[in-house]
UniProtKB/TrEMBL annotation:
It holds the Pfam family Peptidase_M50. It comes from the Archaea. This is Site-2 protease family protein. InterPro entries: EGY1-like, Peptidase_M50.
Amino acid sequence: MAKGIYECIQCGHREVRDTTQPLLPGACPVCGGDMILVGYEVEIEEEEKPSIEEELLKYYELGPLLERRGEVLVYEVISIKEENFEKVMREIEKLGYWIALKRSNGKILLYVFPAQRVEMRENPLIGVLLFVLTLISTFFAGYILSLNYIKTLEDLGIPGVKNVYLNALAFSVGIMAILGTHEMGHKIAATIHGVKSTFPYFIPFPSFIGTLGAVIRVKSPIPTRNAAIDLGASGPIAGLLVAIPVTIVGLKLSAIVPMEYLKQGETVYFGTSILFYALTKMVLGNLGSDVGIILHPLAIAGWVGILVTFLNLIPAAQLDGGHIARALLPEKVHRVLTYALGFLAIGLSYFWPGWFLWGILILLMGRVGNPGALDEVTPLTLSRKILALLAAVIFIVSAVPAPFSS
């Protein structure tokens, strides 16, 4: 029932009363004056939301409640009415819950649990500052690489780009384009599948490439195995699509030098992958054993991009390749694979010391594990199987067992 808002015509006192008569003579509690109706206060009844079980029954035929673990409810699923798990997830989330479909002992179980609050507010200045610092650090790294490249041109009288600042800028823009595109590939895939994530953050670091890469933070669960493959493969593929043309242009600018110029112990040799070797053959043709290549800084940026693609596609823990492998493998099998690859990386440190750090990193991430997608029941689509196979091929052709030697 509506309530009346009254105002005293003498002193202006206003209050709400349980009546809607137009005039209340002498009703003002302050001065005893007459009060007139000036408005209405209407109580709006909130629409009653359906219970979580009522909502679930729209999408699944459920057996009785099997278990209650605190706030987690576990049901057996008799049949699935709605195959689009992401659609169901969006509707259930409106009620403040998340769900997960898992297989156990030949049964399909539905887990229902309170949705976690996802804080998406970010300070854009942090991202901008890191971007600028990384631009500076990669430019400085490119400057150092350019000095070595120009020295070679001058020592041997070879024509080439001798502007140190132009070469440094080319390296900086090249490597940041590769890394940024890699992370934006993840961001776009996450957005498509409703996975909440941040924009890329670049990481400046004083090294020969001037950065530790770029990252995005995923802040909500991956809904399906199809989404996990999309998120895992999108970054490496997107980054590689930029790394290939960067490498081609960089190789065209590189210097062909006599092998005698590459003095043992004074030259750092870059390990080659099948892909980088093929691009070198395509751009520079068949080179004799008596010559070598001094890479232009832009070619080094492309080489780093291919290496980053390989490292990210290692099928372990929560690396990009790890998400793809977890979509294809049970959790226990994936955990065993992760530990095996961690120890293998430590063994490969015989060829390159950096593998020791990668091995330790993989083992540490392996302790956390990879929970996989919320829906582990819905079959993978054919396109995702092909995408996973493509990622495996890219992993093989970009592999560099010994990235550096001297």
